[in-house]
Amino acid sequence: MADIMVLINLLALIYIGWFVDWAVKQNKSKVWLFSGLAIIMLVILATLPNYGPIYSYIMLSGILMYLILTVSWTMFSGPTGYISLASAAFFGVGIYTSAILGKDLPVLVVVIIGGLISVVLAAIVGAITLRLRGIYFIVFTFGLVLLISSVLLWYEIKFTGTRGRFIVAASNDTIYYIMLGITVLMFIAAYLIRRSKYGLALQSIGQNEEAAAHMGINVTAVKVAIFSISAIFMGMAGSIMAMKWIYVDPYSAFDPFRSFLPVLMAIFGGMNKFYGPVLGAVILAFLEEKLLTEFPYVYKLGFGIILIAVILYLPGGLVGVVEKVRARIAKGKNALT
Amino acid sequence: MHLLEGKGVSIHFGGLMAVSDVDFYVDEGEVVGLIGPNGAGKTTLFNLISAALQPKPGEIRFKGQKINGFKPYKICRLGIARTFQIVKVFGSLPVIENVRIGSLFGSAGRISPADIDRKVSELLEFMGLSDVAYTPVKDLTLAHQKRLEVARALATQPSLLMLDELMAGLNPTELNEAMELVKKIRDSGITIIMIEHVMKAIMNICDRIIVLNYGKKLAEGTPQEIANSKTVIEVYLGEKSDAGN
Amino acid sequence: MERFLDIVIAGLLLGGLYALIAMGLSLQYGVARVFNIAHGEFIMLGAMTTWTLYTVFNISPLVAIIISGPVAFVLGFIIHRTMFRKLLSSSANQGIFESNSMLASFGLMFVIQNLAFIIWGPEIRAYNYLTETVSIGGALFGARRLVTLAFAIAIGVAFYIFLARTRIGKAIRAAGQDPNTAGLMGVNINWVLALCFGLGAAMAAVAGVLVSMCYPDSAVMGQEYLTVAIIVVVLGGLGSIPGSFIGGFVLGIIGSIVAFYDPGLTMVAYYAIFILLLLIRPKGIMGK
Fold first, then answer.
1. Distances in Å between the alpha carbon of A237 and those of A116, A152, A164, A247, B173?
2. Residues of chain C scoring pLDDT < 50
3. Residue-level pLDDT at C202
4. Number of structural domains found in chain C
5. In C, which residues are within 8 Å of A307 by CB distance?
6. Residue B74's closest chain A neighbor by CA?
7. What does the pLDDT read at residue C124?
């Protein structure tokens, strides 16, 4: 029963993702006109704690975590092709913000601060690496997570005397509402960016960065800005999810897999449309939640195989398959007329 | 004051002087041709002007302002636009978006935001690309892609347009169309520098020609002077040039 | 004096290991153009299989070197001929291939790492081999560290000579500079690319064996070594194999000095150098 509740909500999320994708290309009045269904989906999601068992919205919080990581990651890395492996770093910053400030400040404030510190970190990383070729960015972000966790561990052991920290817990429905809120904010931000000239700028940077620079785009500034914005949501999500796990240490807070999984989910879902990463995250996160306890390593192994298979045989991801089917149906219709 | 002026412009790659102590100028309204054998440093000179590379040493001034050390986006916003020898289009984006990017980012306030869409469609019309406005650029022919690069550059409302081998790879019909296009652009008030190997185009359109060889300026003058110059003819003997004069 | 020698030997040891690992990665990226994120996992495989071979079958790690090298080579060769060859033919240009192959190696990392978790579990493994101490100039050093150091340097130098002197080595260098022309010159380019990939994997595995002799190992150890390898490759210059060799020793000695004062700070020191590099001279010591 709980699973059905979850699945309905997952479908709601996928629909919203599809809606954003559609809305980006329409003029504003049309968007308002057709947003009714999307709003209904949002209401379904927002009221889950009212009609669903606790297990359902705990699970959904976990899935939202991956959704946020994946969609934020795609915001920058999708159009530009600069593959960031720093997601876990921003998420971890959020976790430790909760660990350090959670006792003294209200939950929402902690979440926002977590987001802000992540922005600062992202801006620094971006300023150092985004002036250079993409490969430097990728490799820098790859080791960043390890770097932060080793510094943190060293600091904690040397100065604080402890290895891990306890975090003030928050109730399951608070966690869910905040995660949903972050997700909505993220969708809105993604929508606004894609519609604006900066969305176009990002795509042109991904297509041909040198030409983009010659067209008057300050490519470094645009890259750093969007990269930093994408980090906000990851940081905020980390802050609130920490209040579910209660105890954290540097290695569990800065787990490289949280950098790898968004990449995998986005590619699996398909990067050519906005709803691709939503689809990929929802499906794989659901599988992960189901398999985590029983088959902890097998499912990750499976994900690796899926990634390889997608890259080799299905470069457009699930979206690619969906679009092919749609094209075939359209062709069929044309043939008949 | 010259629109564009370079003094002692040089750059070396490893041990090779790609451009060596070149002085040049371009006046408003001119069409200047930049010719020379392969490897003479023509595209490198363009790269130095558009700030893809930095002159070391040398000084370049645009409208009297020194532009050394500026980033490419700044140069574009100041009013210098260029095309590339190997087209650098935004392949997956449709034609109209490629052009719009130029207006959105490179025109630096020379077009008011409300006018952008109108200007873009006018430009597409001007360049004969209206029919393919929504086609992804990677699906266009090379000739169309080259025209798109010009449209994109023009969208930034430049004072100076630099064309790098626009005519290369075009068949005779396309060639004539391209030559007419360059004349149309000149007539609309934009100053042009063009790198070309196609002599027919150079002789036909340019007011003045600069000849580079091994990174140095070999000669400079009107098309007649250059065509009759012994030094230039020597350099080009043995060179395959299209459609001789 | 003893402390100083200790630091030097530890530095050379670390440096030798780093140089091996980095040269392997450099081969794969510089020639085969695959930024192999799974490189660290081959190191881990080398280390963990050595542990199993020693603790379960009583096979000496030195023998393990001879076994793991060729096995890893074959594995790498096959992976390239199947997976990366397919990508080569389906990628529209170099840039797309590089990004797709990196992502595919990502998937490979997932697969290998989790296989390791399934086989060996998450625990940290170590074993004791050659734990006797040797006296040099009155100071005492662990025999295993000296042996490891000797092997690392020997293999590194041998590989260097292989690249510089042999016909195959020349073919590899040609392929690295310009694959198309090399192909036209009669180099069987597909074979050379797969060879390089396999060689890189072999070097990683051998490095893994050596690492396991001196340090504890686990299924997750790959990532840290990969990070160091990447820093070394950038330090030496992307695409330069001699650069990776030198860079490895530079970083190893720095690491050893830092570890002397505070072992928890070695990663920080490496990253500080990395950041400095990116800010001042991204193309590294010998970068093109």
1. 12, 20, 20, 16, 60
2. none
3. 93
4. 1
5. 103-104, 106-107, 110
6. A216
7. 87
Looking at chain B, the whole-number percentage of residues with pLDDT higher than 90 is 48
| Owning domain of residue C206 | 2-221
What digits encode the pLDDT tens for the residues B4-20?
A: 999 989 998 877 888 88
Q: What is the pTM of this model?
A: 0.91
- Residue A296 tokens read as 């902890």
In a domain, residue C275? The reply is no
For residue C138, what pLDDT is reported?
62
> In a 3-state reduction of DSSP, which class is residue A220?
helix
pLDDT at A85 over 60: yes
Q: Are A234 and A250 in contact (CB under 8 A)?
A: no
Is C229 a domain residue? Answer: no
A298 vs C102, C118, C227: nearest CB: C118
Residue C264 DSSP symbol: G
Q: What gap in Å lies between CA A248 and CA B100, rounded to an integer?
A: 49
B-chain residues near A204 (CB < 8 A): 90, 93, 101
C104, A307: Cβ pair inside 8 Å? yes
Find, in chain B, the residue whose alpha carbon is nearest to that of A213. Answer: B73
User: Is residue A24 pLDDT above 70, yes or no?
Assistant: yes
Beta-bridge partner residues of B82: B162
| pLDDT for A237 beyond 70 | yes
State residue C139's pLDDT score: 66
pLDDT number for residue A79: 93
Contact list in A for residue B101 (CB cut-off 8 A) is 200-201, 204, 212, 215, 217
Task: List chain A residues with CB under 8 Å of C113.
Answer: 300
For residue C64, tell me if it sits in a domain.
yes
Indicate whether C70 belongs to any domain: yes
Contact C278 A140 (CB under 8 A): yes
ipTM for the whole complex: 0.88
Residues A43-69 as b/e (b if ≥16 CB within 10 A, e otherwise) read ebbeebbeebeeebbbbbbbbbbbbbb
From A147's Cα to the closest Cα of chain C, the distance in A is: 6
Three-state DSSP at C209 gives: helix
Q: Calculate how close chain C gets to A329, using CA atoms only, in Å.
A: 26
What percent of chain A lies above the pLDDT cut of 70?
99
C104 touches chain A (CB under 8 A): yes
Which chains, if any, share at least 3 CB pairs under 8 A with chain B?
A
Token pair of A176 as six digits: 């869910």
Give B238 or A316, the one with higher predicted confidence: A316
Question: Does A2-336 carry CATH code 1.10.287?
Answer: no
